[in-house]
């Protein structure tokens, strides 16, 4: 009888995990499409995504807090689209500048292809092997703090080489973030698909931005 109960709980856990993964990737796909549409809107309407550094920071923090507070309600889905739409709009100015360069269209397409390939490859690896990458959490937090501090120094003092180094660091960190977030889904450490979606979206968003910056520098 005990063995039957253990088997039933195990089967139920697997079903819950599969549902969580399916819901997460469904919502992630929808938010990526919506974010892309908002980026296209910002490109066709120059100035729409010019929030400025302070405006972007306040908007992001406010919307992320809204997602966190509503993560267990139906409005949480609406707040996720608000956050990802805002981030999509913020891409407009950078994409406009990139597209205006010689070969800018190729840079954007290559960055998109690289981002998609990296995400699918890393996600498939974790989903197949079911390895637990939670041990990366400490390294990730230390790396993110280093990237934020380094990025602020690069902005304040206009140090281009430091900015590129930070972009490379962020790209590596986001690869680790994809492994970490996906393994949390697979191994039951994350049970809220809204927060899982936001985590994976942020990794994809920052990876794409970092690759754009790196490819632009190499193109120059």
Strand and helix order: HHHHHHHH
Helix content: over 70%
Helical segment count: 8
> What number of domains?
1
Biggest beta sheet attributes: none
The general outline is globular
Poorly predicted runs of 5 or more residues: 4-9
| Helix vs. strand class | mainly alpha
- Please report the distance between the alpha carbons of the first and last residues: 69 Å
- Measured by DSSP, the beta-strand proportion falls in under 5%
Cα gyration radius (Å): 19 Å
What would the average pLDDT be, to the nearest integer?
90
SS elements, strand count: 0
Give a brief description.
This protein has helices at residues 2-44, 52-69, 75-90, 92-99, 104-129, 137-157, 160-186, 193-219.
Report on this structure:
By secondary structure, this protein is an all-alpha fold. The protein has one domain (2-219). Helix content is 85%, strand content 0%. The protein contains eight helices and no strands. Helix 3 runs parallel beside helix 8 (193-219), helix 5 (104-129) packs parallel to helix 7 (160-186) and helix 6 packs antiparallel against helix 7.
Q: How is the secondary structure organized here?
A:
Layout: H1 2-44, H2 52-69, H3 75-90, H4 92-99, H5 104-129, H6 137-157, H7 160-186, H8 193-219
Helix pairs in contact: 1-3, 1-4, 1-8, 2-3, 3-8, 4-5, 5-7, 5-8, 6-7, 7-8
């Amino acid at each position: 009888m005990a063995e039957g109960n253990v088997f039933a709980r195990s089967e139920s856990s697997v079903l819950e995990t599969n549902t969580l993964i399916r819901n997460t990737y469904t919502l992630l796909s929808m938010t990526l499409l919506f974010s892309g549409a908002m980026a296209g809107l910002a490109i066709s309407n120059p100035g729409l995504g010019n929030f400025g550094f302070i405006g972007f920071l306040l908007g992001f923090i406010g919307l992320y807090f809204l997602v966190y507070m509503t993560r267990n309600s139906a409005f949480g889905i609406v707040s996720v689209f608000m956050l990802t739409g805002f981030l999509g709009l913020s891409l407009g100015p950078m994409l406009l500048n990139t597209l205006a360069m010689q070969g800018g269209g190729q840079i954007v397409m290559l960055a998109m292809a690289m981002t998609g390939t990296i995400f699918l490859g890393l996600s498939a690896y974790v989903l197949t092997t079911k390895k637990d990458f939670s041990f990366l959490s400490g390294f990730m937090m230390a790396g993110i703090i280093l990237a934020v501090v380094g990025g602020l120094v690069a902005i304040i003092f206009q140090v281009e080489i430091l900015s590129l180094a930070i972009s490379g660091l962020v790209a590596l960190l986001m690869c680790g973030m994809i492994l970490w977030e996906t393994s949390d889904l697979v191994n039951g450490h994350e049970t809220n698909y809204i927060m899982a979606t936001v985590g994976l979206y942020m990794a994809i968003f920052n990876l794409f931005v970092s690759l754009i910056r790196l490819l632009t520098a190499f193109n120059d």
